[in-house]
Amino acid sequence: MTRRDLLKRAGVLGGIAVAAPAFPSSVARAFVAAQQAAAAADPLTAMRAQMAATPIQQTRLTNLIVMFSGPGGNVVVRNGEEGKIVVDTFVQGAFPALRQRLDTIGNAPIVATINTHWHFDHTDNNESFRKTGSKLIAHENTKKRLAQPHDLLGMHFTPAAAAAMPTGTFTQSDHITFELTGAEEYIDLGYIPPAHTDTDIYVYFAIGDVLHMGDTFFNGQYPFIDAGTGGHINGMIAAAEKGLKMTNAETRIVPGHGPLGDRVALTRYRDMLVTVRDRVQKMKTTGRTEKEVVAAKPTAEFDAAWGTGLLQPDAFASIVYNTLS
Ligand SMILES: [Zn+2]
Fold first, then answer.
1. How far is the CA of 219 from the centre of ligand 1 (A)?
2. Which of 24, 62, 195, 196 lies in the 20 to 30 Å Cα band around 138?
């Protein structure tokens, strides 16, 4: 259903709403059913339902670290005897299935849930995780963005409930480290200057050598860049460079979306971003309009490999154009 269809239907329902009280009860019931259908067609509700219906895939990264994929951004769990550390939360509706997976891998409590950034497909179950007794850790800007209303890709977000807010935040671009079972066991969280949003952090599991890059890394698909909350193509490239500096050939690199990656995958991604950015920048600098740049197909040779994800090639070219000056 297109957005125009949606708006048209909303208009029609609006007309019925005025007349509904005068209708016999069977019509009133039909009206209620129509209202429920309209609610289900709300873009955010529809997206949540669609994502929540995606089956969860499980990938073992180390003896203690597991990656779950499917109903939202990739989730990484460290299942230590002292408790579980969970990175990102999937969307509302997927919590029961995720909880079941977490229970299946072990009965240690969830001690900390980390948000890589503010987007709903990473933070939607914050409240449910907090109810389990977990603390919620994120960058200070994630807390700030969650407290604001946003309009994103046709979806409207109201400020998050108090119970969904991070309970522990940090602002520094240097790492915060918390120890789990002694001096040798630690997880680094570090701020990534504005890239996908202005709330991005990386999470590095030092002992397992696993790096979760959140949505600064889309593996095998053009990345979404949320310029409305501070995202920028140059920040995305800087984030990829940062990831490459932090890792070696053995490091398992988890993207926000797409399959598990490594340095080869992250290098390929960085090179694609740089090539597209340079082409678009050159054209914009010489005065070409967004329409002209998109028509020039600056992503052409990457489209077969990268153009089948969330973003179509033209949409990605537009985003790159608009974040550049
Ligand atoms: Zn995101």
1. 13
2. 62
231 DSSP β-pair partners: none
pLDDT digits (tens, 9 = 90+) for 210-238: 999 999 999 999 999 999 999 999 999 99
CA 69, distance to chain mean position in Å, is: 12
Q: What is the DSSP letter of 60?
A: E
Ligand 1 centre distance from Cα of residue 40 (Å): 23
Query: Between vectors from CA 113 to CA 109 and to CA 119, what angle results, nearest 5°?
Result: 150
- Per DSSP bridges, beta strands 65-70 and 72-80 are antiparallel
CA of 199 to the centre of ligand 1 (A): 10
CA distances (Å), 99 to each of 75, 82, 259, in order?
A: 12, 18, 22
Cβ atoms of 90 and 174 closer than 8 Å? no
Length reported for the chain: 325
* Residue 154 CA to ligand 1 centre (angstroms): 15
Residue 181 CB contacts under 8 Å (≥ 6 apart), including other chains: 80, 81, 82
Using the mean position of ligand 1's atoms as its centre, give its distance from the Cα of residue 133 in Å. 25
Q: How many CB atoms neighbour CB 192 within 10 A?
A: 25
pLDDT at position 182 is: 53
Q: How far is the CA of 99 from the centre of ligand 1 (A)?
A: 22
Neighbouring CB atoms inside 10 A of 281's CB total 18
pLDDT bucket at 181, cuts 50 / 70 / 90? low
Neighbours of ion ligand 1 (CB under 5 A): 119, 215
Cα(231) to ligand 1 centroid in Å equals 10
**pTM given for the model:** 0.86
Q: Is the pLDDT at 26 greater than 70, yes or no?
A: no
